[in-house]
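Lab notebook, design round three. We kept the backbone fixed and only want residue identities now. Task for the bench partner: fill in a sequence for the structure below.
Input structure tokens:
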């Protein structure tokens, strides 16, 4: 497959004139500094957000196009949103800021997200140990110790085994069974 892609690329370049190739190269070369500048702006803004509120920073998205920064996602309060927008505007090289940041006072903290991730991974390991490859189609979601299993399995016995394995996993406080059995 890779060979076919390479052949197609060579063939398409072969049909280009040297002037077209030079023009394409110049276009890429002239666009590169703007792309690098935008990437640096995003990195700088994101690092500033972490110093303002690390938990909210985990739930935001920052994009930049020719110095115009777009902020999306959610933050814990209007005050944090205002500080994020002000810090983005104050960043050297930013020519404008568009914000669609929503306020969600119930955003999970980084510590809680890490704990949920650890429980998810532990349950996935328990399911794999009990069911092997049959655990692959099962999705595990953990939130504050409550685990939800969803997906389709081959039999009711396998579903029961997976629920039991999840319940025995350290850190799990409850299991919601949304597994369906293939018919």
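Proposed sequence:
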């Amino acid at each position: 497959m890779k060979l076919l892609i390479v052949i197609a690329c060579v063939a398409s370049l072969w049909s280009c004139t040297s002037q077209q190739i030079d023009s394409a190269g110049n276009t890429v070369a002239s666009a590169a500094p703007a792309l690098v500048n935008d990437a640096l702006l995003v990195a700088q803004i994101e690092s500033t957000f972490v110093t303002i509120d690390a938990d909210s920073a985990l739930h935001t998205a920052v994009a930049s196009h020719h110095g115009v920064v777009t902020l999306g996602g959610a933050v814990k309060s209007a005050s944090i949103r205002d500080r994020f927008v002000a810090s983005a505007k104050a960043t050297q090289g930013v020519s404008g800021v568009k914000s669609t940041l929503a306020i969600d006072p119930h955003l999970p903290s980084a510590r809680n997200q890490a704990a949920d991730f650890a429980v998810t991974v532990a349950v996935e390991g328990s399911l794999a140990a009990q069911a092997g490859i049959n655990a692959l189609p099962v999705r595990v979601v953990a939130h504050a110790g409550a685990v939800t299993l969803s997906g389709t399995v081959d039999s009711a016995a396998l579903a029961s085994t997976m629920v039991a394995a999840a319940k025995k996993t350290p850190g799990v406080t409850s299991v919601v069974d949304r597994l369906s059995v293939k018919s």
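Keep this in mind before ordering anything: The helical segments are 2-14, 18-52, 54-57, 78-90, 110-131, 156-168.
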